[in-house]
Write a structure and sequence with these properties.
The chain is mostly helical. The protein has a domain of about 55 residues. The protein contains 3 helices and no strands. The longest helix is centred in the middle third of the chain and has 56 residues. The protein is rod-shaped and about 95 Å long.
Length: about 80
């Protein structure tokens, strides 16, 4: 029972990490890294949004073209229906 009151293994990771966070050079590097990551994320989002908008615009133009072709086919088939 005496062993349960005294841990055999002690975690020292948290105390090790806190020392590095307090170092001024580490804070500066980490701050720049985070802003670079945020900027990269913003650029990726913007590129994805621009690509999506371009694809939607392209499909809209293709749809207009297909509608024009369908209208021409309909008009042609109506004008030449007496040939059949």
């Amino acid at each position: 029972m005496d062993d349960l009151r005294h841990p055999i293994v002690q975690c020292t990771i948290a105390s090790h990490m806190n020392r590095h966070r307090q170092h001024p050079a580490w804070r500066g590097q980490r701050g720049n890294e985070m802003s670079d990551v945020q900027r990269f994320g913003d650029e990726v989002q913007r590129a994805g949004k621009n690509g999506f908008n371009a694809a939607v615009s392209s499909f809209a133009e293709a749809n207009k073209g297909l509608q024009a072709i369908a209208a021409e086919i309909t008009a042609y088939s109506k004008s030449n229906s007496c040939l059949v």
